[in-house]
């Protein structure tokens, strides 16, 4: 986050990593009118899923990790500004290349599918605290798509499995009574 050159890039990163938004479509489409500060929610318009009935928008919580970045952007926004991200409005904007430079500036190695993996990390985290059907509603995908493309096995999963008794009690093996 510190390597991001300005508030706009911090918000792009936060919307992808903490909000789980698709980039660039959902990030660049987010308007200040979509932010419901009072209810800590935002309306996300999804060009990717809009052709499915009832999937053109979804309601996403304003997660605590995302809130300070939204507030910073709001505080810096000029009166009457429509979109949260005011730059990169042209179709030929290449956010991936700029993001790779930011990652290298942070002395990290760019990973595959830069923006999708930020979203994947968020979906994996959320499934640790909320039921999968709820997380999928927030993320705008199905449980099948989540399992196939987004959910990850993390080091914490291994640590947890190795540090706890995974069975409530050890059971005797069931005898196979073939006659």
Notes on the protein architecture:
With 179 residues, this protein is mainly alpha-helical. The chain has a single domain (7-163), classed as hpI Integrase, Chain A (Orthogonal Bundle), CATH 1.10.443.10. The protein is 42% helix and 7% strand. It has 8 helices and 3 strands, in the order H-H-E-E-E-H-H-H-H-H-H. The chain has a 3-stranded antiparallel beta sheet with strand order 1-2-3. Strand 1 (35-36) and strand 2 form a beta hairpin. Helix 1 runs antiparallel to helix 3 and helix 5 (114-127) packs antiparallel against helix 6 (132-139). It is globular, with a radius of gyration of 20 Å. The model has no long low-confidence stretch (mean pLDDT 87).
Label this structure with key terms.
179 residues, mainly alpha, hpI Integrase, Chain A, three-stranded antiparallel sheet, 3 strands
């Amino acid at each position: 986050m510190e390597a991001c050159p300005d508030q706009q890039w911090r918000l792009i990163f936060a919307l992808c990593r903490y909000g789980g938004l698709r980039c660039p479509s959902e990030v660049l489409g987010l308007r200040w009118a979509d932010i419901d500060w009072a209810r800590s929610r935002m309306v996300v318009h999804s060009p990717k899923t809009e052709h499915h009935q009832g999937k053109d928008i979804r309601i996403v919580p304003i997660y605590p990790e995302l809130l300070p970045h939204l507030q910073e952007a709001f505080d810096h926004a000029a009166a009457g500004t429509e979109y949260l991200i005011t730059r990169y409005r042209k179709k030929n904007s290449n956010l991936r290349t700029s993001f790779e430079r930011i990652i290298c500036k942070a002395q990290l190695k760019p990973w595959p599918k830069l923006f999708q993996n930020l979203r994947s990390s968020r979906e994996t985290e959320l499934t640790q605290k909320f039921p999968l059907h709820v997380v999928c509603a927030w993320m705008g995908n199905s449980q099948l798509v989540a399992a196939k493309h987004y959910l990850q096995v993390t080091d914490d999963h291994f640590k947890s499995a190795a540090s706890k008794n995974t069975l409530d009690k050890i059971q005797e093996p069931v005898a196979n009574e073939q006659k």
